[in-house]
Amino acid sequence: PARGALHLLGAPPGAVAVVTPRLVTAYGPGDGDLRWHREAGPGCAFDPTRTAHHAGLLLIARHCAPGTPWTSRIAAVSATAPFA
């Protein structure tokens, strides 16, 4: 299911983020150009259904292998770049 997979980022024109278990990509809404992408990482997967918008960022839950530090279990992205 695509529920929760598309997110608007930033003030217009901003970007459109597509969240899948293995990859998050951001596209320009006007031109469709790829702005950036971020892989979930080895042993991890993004959860497109567990997201939140806060202070201009999209926060995404990331499931990782047991023993992975809790700080690796969340990813933050903006219209211009992925972060942690």
Topology:
Elements: E1 6-9, E2 15-19, E3 23-27, E4 34-39, E5 44-54, E6 57-64, E7 74-77
Antiparallel strand pairs: 1-2, 2-3, 3-4, 5-6, 6-7
Verbal overview:
The chain is 0% helix and 51% strand. It has 84 residues and is mainly β. The chain has one domain. The strands form two sheets. Strands 1-2-3-4 form a four-stranded antiparallel β-sheet, with no helix packed on it. It has a three-stranded antiparallel β-sheet with strand order 5-6-7, with no helix packed on it. The chain is elongated and about 40 Å long.
State the gist of this model.
This protein is mainly beta and 84 residues long.
Describe the structure using short key phrases.
84 residues, mainly beta, 4-stranded antiparallel beta sheet, single chain
- The topology string of helices and strands comes to EEEEEEE
Helix content: under 10%
How many domains? The number is 1
- Biggest pleated-sheet summary: 4 strands, antiparallel
Termini Cα gap: 26 Å
Instruction: Indicate the low-confidence ranges by residue numbers.
Output: none
Rg measurement, Å: 12 Å
The outline comes out as elongated
The neighbouring-strand order within the major sheet is: 1-2-3-4
Task: Average the pLDDT over all residues and give the rounded result.
Answer: 90
- The number of distinct helices, counting runs of at least 4 residues, comes to 0
Number of DSSP-assigned strands: 7
Beta fraction: over 45%
Structural class: mainly beta
